[in-house]
Amino acid sequence: MSKNPTLSEYSKFVNSVYGLQNDRCYTVWDMLANTNKFAMRSIKGVRKNNREKIRLNMLITMSWFTSLMNQFHVDLDGIVWERFPYLCSYCGECPCACKAEKVSSRRKVLGNMSMKPVTMADYQKMFNKIYPKEGRTEKDAAIHLAEEAGELSEAFHIYMGDRKVAHFNEVRLEAADFFSCMMGVMNSSNIDCQKELVKLFSKGCFVCGKAQCICTFDDVNDFKS
Ligand SMILES: [Zn+2]
Ligand SMILES: [Zn+2]
Fold first, then answer.
1. What integer is the mean pLDDT of 158-187?
2. How far apart are alpha carbons 82 and 78 in whole angstroms?
3. Which of 32, 88, 200, 225 has the fewest C-beta atoms under 10 angstroms from its C-beta?
4. Which ligand is nearest the CA of 207, by number?
5. Does residue 78 have a pLDDT over 90?
6. What is the per-residue pLDDT for 1?
């Protein structure tokens, strides 16, 4: 992975390290369970004010979530920009004015392509501009992430029930919201997502150290974080 990966480069990197193992060993429910497991550990870190627990588990959550998106061939960069084009996806403002304006229904947001973030760091910066960390507590950011984890699971549950295109679109929207909330927690917790990911995954999988992960199903289940 380069030092300044774009979201697409990061997705490709995750696929090269974990794609094979994921396709062979994990169903969508396994992938979702792991995404949620590590997100909740991170949230526990917020409750206990354990900085290392928040940091490590957010990075692992990002990796499982990206694998899940890869499994469904979702263009992460595309869905995040479509939903958050340097504007709040609800009120259409930057910074978000949802609280001040009491916006009652979602507005149509159209962004300016010239502002589109390039690297992951650019995306994190963008989310702090739309939703400045000063406007919420770290606990609020964590609760919001938990909400979105539930909504993402619900969207997958419905889509996997009827496999309708409209419901797959809901998955895409909820995935973008979940990504936004991961960035929210990392902004609130002062975690430099790009820098930390590059460091943690410098040799491929950070657990087995291989460029193509050989961790078993049990290794993942037994992993303490
Ligand atoms: Zn807003
Ligand atoms: Zn591994």
1. 98
2. 6
3. 225
4. 2
5. yes
6. 86
Report which bound ligand comes closest to the CA of 131: 1
200 by Cβ neighbours in 10 Å (0-12 / 13-18 / 19+) ranks as: middle
Question: What ranges do the domains of the chain cover?
Answer: 7-85+138-222
Ligand at minimal distance from the CA of 217 is 2
Would you mind telling me the total number of residues written for the chain in this entry? 225
Asked if pLDDT for residue 36 goes beyond 90, the answer is yes
112, 77 contact by CB (below 8 A): no
Tell me, in angstroms, the distance from the centre of ligand 2 to residue 209's CA.
6
**How far apart are the C-alpha atoms of 225 and 213, rounded to whole Å?**
18
What spacing in Å lies between the alpha carbon of 56 and ligand 1's midpoint? Answer: 29
Q: Find the farthest-apart pair of alpha carbons in the chain and give their distance in angstroms, rounded.
A: 51
> pTM to 2 decimals?
0.97
- Residue 196 vs residues 31, 120, 138, 191: alpha-carbon distances, Å: 22, 11, 19, 8
Of the candidates 87, 68, 75, 90, the one whose C-alpha atom is nearest the C-alpha of residue 23 is 68
